[in-house]
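Researcher: Go.
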Amino acid sequence: MPDRELHVYPDVTGLLQATARFLRDKIKAVLSSNPHCSIALSGGNTPRALYQLMASDPIRREIAWEKLRFFFGDERFVPHDHPDSNFRMVTESLFEPAGIDMKNVFPVDTSMSPPQAAAAYQKTIKAQLGATGIFNIVLLGLGNDAHTASLFPHTNVLEERSVWVKEVHVKSLDSWRITFTVPLITTAQTIVFLAHGASKAAAVKHVLEGRNDPKSYPAQYIVPIDGTVHWFLDSEAGAGISS
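Model: Structure:
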């Protein structure tokens, strides 16, 4: 597929280093012809290690952080200082260590109701990116159930095609999430999936080579409209794929 590229590395260390270098180079490429670079970040443990690496030398010194605009592909509906908050995790692992000016960070406002928070975040994105809402880079993780962002299997948000950001109640977790929808993610110029470990192998296999069943394997919905999706995997996560 011309819109998909696989990058598989022997171990997690090599995977994270390669992903960090890839993002650095993409950021530089965007900034070579644009005043700013917009990035939607992912939560979770794997991105945390990536953010810590990017906030460390030498990569930290190779990125024009003041020209970046940071958003969140999804957020748990908790206060920003809650241990489960993606905003808190990224602040601790990336924003503070890299010395990023928080005026360039656009978090989800979780002080209002979930529907209000989703609508407000869509307005924020439109105000920053314009009517097209095209992100330069969207970073995604992959759950063991093949969910990405907060697009969980068999949830109503998977069918959303008219709005960019939506609230979703995840019954299995008994929690509300705010998430980018499929239309917003798939318009991005560059989409990066990051996954490692044997526990992700089945999900990777289902998404990349399994039967077409995106309601069960939501990451299958992430097919770029006019961009490229890059899968960054370690050898364990990629063990089941044939290409």
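Model: Helices lie at 12-31, 45-54, 86-98, 114-129, 182-186, 201-209.
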